[in-house]
Amino acid sequence: MDHIKNLLSRRIRQSAIGRQVDQAMIIEFFAQLIKKKLGDNISRRLKPVYLKNKDIYIACVSSVIKQEIILRKAELLADVNEKFGPQTIMGIKFI
Closest by alpha carbon to 38, among 5, 69, 6? Predict the structure, then answer.
């Protein structure tokens, strides 16, 4: 017999709420990753906003910072996919 905790955890993971929680965790991890790898100065000028179709969408105020993210795209995606599983995020888009 399954414990209620296990049943609830399984249902939450399968539901839309579970997917939203996963997406929020990925976005937060990405924000911390930017801060760690590129520093506070850059991390204050951009914000990961949402995930859609395996792309992370980032609001960015500077074309120079956008270019820096593009140059480090492979490294950033590899770190996220290492933590959350292969092909979690496949691309970075800017808004």
Answer: 69
Within 8 A by CB and 6+ apart from 42, the residues are 34, 65, 68
pLDDT tens column, 23-70: 999 999 999 999 999 999 999 999 999 999 999 999 999 999 999 999
Longest dimension (CA), the chain: 57
The pLDDT of residue 22: 87
pTM value is 0.82
Distance CA 51, CA 57 (A): 6
The correct answer on CATH 4.10.240 for the domain covering 4-94 is no
DSSP string covering 2-57: --HHHHHHHHHHHSHHHHHHHHHHHHHHHHHHHHHHH-HHHHTTEEEEEEETTEEE
Q: What is the residue extent of each domain of the chain?
A: 4-94
